[in-house]
């Protein structure tokens, strides 16, 4: 098994432990992503902030909420004018040890999506767990 | 206790719903910039669960000519009050 595979496996295992045993993920930094790819630079900037924090050794959790869930759609591609999009960054998250990927349940259902539609394994967060999630991270950045 | 800052008008867009969904039972909400439109009588019903925990920034209300139209349910604070609210909170979370 190469390093990438083991990192992904680890992420899945930890996601399950957090989802079932403790219920709520915790970490140093929670980055909330609420904007879709391509439409603005919000999503890219949020992901950049997460990567920088992770590169400095912070334990980063990502929460995809609102249109931010679209960041996890498979088969994304560059825009018509060659704009890069953000799917490349999503692929890199495991390399940066960002393994706590959380998705707001309401954001999925209101867009007719489910966790199985997404390009990576995620933990789905129900609405009543959101305040606790913010509480369990000393720093929250909102994009 | 988290101080949530909302700078988007609750009358347009869903940012206010994202903020409310993430607020805990003790958290406070301070309306700033275009967020102060939430203190108007027509909008303030969104915040009924936040009695005593809803604030609006005086300077931003005044700049928009809304100071006298503000609903009592929103506690009006000036920038010094903003600082105090920040001091009293464990952290702040901005919603834009």
From TrEMBL, chain A:
InterPro entries for the chain: DsrEFH-like (IPR027396), Sulphur_relay_DsrE/F-like (IPR003787), Sulphur_relay_TusC/DsrF (IPR017462)
Gene3D superfamilies named among the record's database cross-references: DsrEFH-like
Record Pfam families: DsrE
SUPFAM superfamilies cross-referenced by the UniProt entry: DsrEFH-like
Family, per entry: Belongs to the DsrF/TusC family.
Protein's name according to its UniProt entry: tRNA 2-thiouridine synthesizing protein C
TrEMBL record, chain B:
Residue stretches in coiled coil: none
Domain of life: Bacteria
GO biological process terms, semicolon-separated: tRNA wobble position uridine thiolation
Pfam families: DsrH (PF04077)
GO CC annotations on file: sulfurtransferase complex
Transmembrane segments: none
UniProt name for this protein: tRNA 2-thiouridine synthesizing protein B
Matching SUPFAM superfamilies: DsrEFH-like
């Amino acid at each position: 098994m190469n390093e990438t595979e083991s990192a992904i496996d680890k992420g899945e295992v930890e996601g399950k432990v957090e989802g079932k045993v403790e219920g709520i993920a915790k970490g140093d930094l929670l980055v909330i992503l609420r904007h879709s790819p391509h439409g603005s630079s919000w999503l890219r900037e949020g992901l950049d902030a997460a990567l920088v924090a992770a590169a400095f050794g912070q334990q980063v959790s990502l929460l995809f909420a609102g249109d931010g869930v679209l960041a996890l759609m498979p088969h994304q591609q560059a825009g018509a004018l060659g704009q890069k999009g953000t799917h490349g960054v999503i692929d890199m998250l495991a390399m940066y040890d960002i393994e706590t990927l959380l998705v707001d349940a309401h954001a999925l259902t209101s867009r007719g999506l489910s966790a199985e539609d997404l390009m990576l394994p995620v933990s789905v967060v129900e609405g009543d767990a959101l305040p606790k999630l913010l509480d369990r991270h000393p720093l929250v950045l909102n994009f | 206790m988290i101080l949530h800052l909302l700078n988007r008008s609750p009358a347009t867009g869903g940012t206010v719903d994202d903020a409310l969904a993430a607020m805990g039972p003790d958290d406070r909400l301070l309306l700033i910039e275009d967020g102060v439109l939430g203190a108007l009588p027509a909008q303030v019903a969104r915040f009924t669960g936040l009695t005593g925990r809803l604030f609006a920034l005086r300077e931003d209300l005044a700049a928009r000519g809304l100071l006298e139209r503000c609903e009592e349910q929103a506690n009006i604070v000036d920038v010094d009050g903003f600082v105090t609210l920040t001091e009293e909170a464990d952290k702040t979370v901005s919603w834009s």
